[in-house]
Amino acid sequence: MASPLTDVGVETPVLAAPMAGSPTTPELVVAAAGAGGFGFLAGGYKTVEALEAQIARTRSAGVGFGVNLFAPNPSPVDPTAFRAFAHAIAPEARAYGLDTTRFPVTEDDDHWADKVDLLLSSPVPVVSFTFGLPESGIVDALRTAGTLVVQTVTSPVEARAAAEAGVDVLAVQASAAGGHSGTWTPQRTPPAVPLPDLLRSVRKEVSLPLVAAGGIATPHAVTEALSAGAAAVMVGTVLLRADEAGTSAPHRAALADPAARDTVVTRAFTGRPARALRNEFTDRYGDVAPYGYPALHHLTRSMRSAAAAANDAERINLWAGTGYRSATAEPAAQILQRLASRA
């Protein structure tokens, strides 16, 4: 494994991606390190206090790890479109005693400044960013604090800008990835470029180390990405059923359902493009949901939480990449070691 990844303790080229919400736990991150890889805590959607607690739990295990943050890149929602969508999904929410027509338009930056301050006052080995590029001053401050900076990109244009901002490593994410696209232009769904092709096109523009992400779920996919120029790969969906993951019961069940679902890129749940297993909600509202993040995330969050508690897989965001059928229920270390077996 080439430096600078080796410098933070990476021994095998398969890393555990940050999965915001409940799937990524400190235990999953520790397991990734124990398998010779590396894991990232997901800072998105957490309070500063919750993130600090997860950092402390992971740090107490004595392993290397990273933290991922959502860089501010708001996609403001049109208020009229927001209200129309809130009324459209009202029947789904009423099933759980919620009235989406009364929800306010909520725009926020996910406690950005406070989270950056936390990572500067108590540095971790690696910090990664997605959704947008932080100010160069933040990149410089983190690097001065001894932190390796990783930036998620989805195109050669983004890769060039990230390199110019002084980041250390690029996480190159293809459209096959599960969950939110890291695109910096969420009003446009990224084209379906195969990961090896995307890696080669990025490599033509920059010389930084590349970490490949998006649809990787088999040893063959790992070797293919490495052959296309990646120094390592990052996997998420294939870990959703791992013993250490905090994935909800209905999400786990949907991933394991022998009546396999297709995946779709939808903005129905959050107003930002994200790949998920098809369900009734994506079918009904995928074409009518407006762009608008994080406003739609806040609008649907209570409904999704209630549906998850009720084991209702038709009203929750079943984030999943195209390789989800390879997700297995076993210890994370076994999954990661199997993926790295041909590297």
TrEMBL record:
Domain of life: Bacteria
The name this protein goes by in its record: Propionate 3-nitronate monooxygenase
Obligatory cofactor(s): FMN
Family to which the UniProt record says this protein belongs: Belongs to the nitronate monooxygenase family. NMO class I subfamily.
Cross-referenced InterPro entries: Aldolase_TIM (IPR013785), NMO (IPR004136)
Recorded catalytic activity of this chain's protein: 3 propionate 3-nitronate + 3 O2 + H2O = 3 3-oxopropanoate + 2 nitrate + nitrite + H2O2 + 3 H(+)
GO biological process: response to toxic substance
Swiss-Prot/TrEMBL keywords: Detoxification, Dioxygenase, Flavoprotein, FMN, Monooxygenase, Oxidoreductase
Organism per entry: Streptomyces griseoloalbus
GO molecular function: dioxygenase activity; nitronate monooxygenase activity
